Structure formats: structure tokens, C-alpha cells
């Protein structure tokens, strides 16, 4: 499955670096996260991750309780079969149990298909995020990234923030 890689392929890695079953198991144990997989005997058809969020509020804004969806993906050959809709329903039911005020997510502004799908589910545009690239970095392959991490560790350096 691809995370909207067609719109900006250089932004996405082909695989998660250092990802393992143990890391995923750690994610599953987090109390404020929900991980859902739409699966058949043929394999995983879709995946959704959602996190609970409680805003503290400030002088300008009321505190709000919500759920954020950082990832929701459906295999391209499974689009328009109700899988995404079912994943959203499950996330929204989980949000209701939390007494969330809202469910939110980000979408690539060029992804017209996803924007139409979210609108059909009742999701409105709530904000617009803008970014300016200050410098470009050469992307490291997975092997080179592990090598670089080992080299920095031997030198006693900590990765910069």
C-alpha cells in the first residue's frame, strides 16, 4: 500500500527504516491509539491508525477533545469497495467512546479523490497547513541509513534534533 506516494514520491520511503514486529507491538500497546486492519484470507486490504487528543486550551481557544487519524490507507485495487468507509466508521465509534468532539486528519491538497471521499463522509476543511522548504537533503537508502546510524553511535554522537 502506498501513502499517497503518487503525488510526491520523493517524500516517502519505500519501507520503514528499522521497522520490526516488536516496534509495531509497542504501538499496539499504547492506550490512546487505535490500529485497525481490514483483512481477508488474501491479506491486508486496508489499515487505519487513530490517536486520542486532549487540547489544554489557552487564552484564545477552548480545550477540545478529539481524535486524529495519522494514517488511513486502502490497497489501490480495493478502492470503492467500502473498506475505507468501514475503517472510518470504526474510528468514529472509537472516538464516540472517548466522547471526542471531532475526528480530524490531513490530506494532500492535490489528492482530489481523497478530498471528495472525506467530504462524502462529512469531513469539512478545518484548516490549511503551509510549509516552505528551507533546504533539501539527500535521501539515504535503508542500508546507508543504518550504516550512518552505526557510524554516529561509534563516534559518540547523538542524532541532531
What does this structure look like?
It is a single chain. It is globular, with a radius of gyration of 19 Å. The chain contains 4 helices and 4 strands; from the N terminus they run H-E-E-E-H-E-H-H. It has a single domain, classed as Gcn5-related N-acetyltransferase (GNAT) (Aminopeptidase, 3-Layer(aba) Sandwich), CATH 3.40.630.30. Helix content is 28%, strand content 21%. The protein is α+β, with helices and mostly antiparallel strands and 161 residues long. A 4-stranded mixed beta sheet has the order 1-2-3-4, covered by helices on one side.
Q: Secondary-structure blueprint of this entry?
A:
Layout: H1 21-28, E1 33-40, E2 43-54, E3 65-74, H2 83-97, E4 102-105, H3 112-120, H4 142-154
Parallel strand pairs: 3-4
Antiparallel strand pairs: 1-2, 2-3
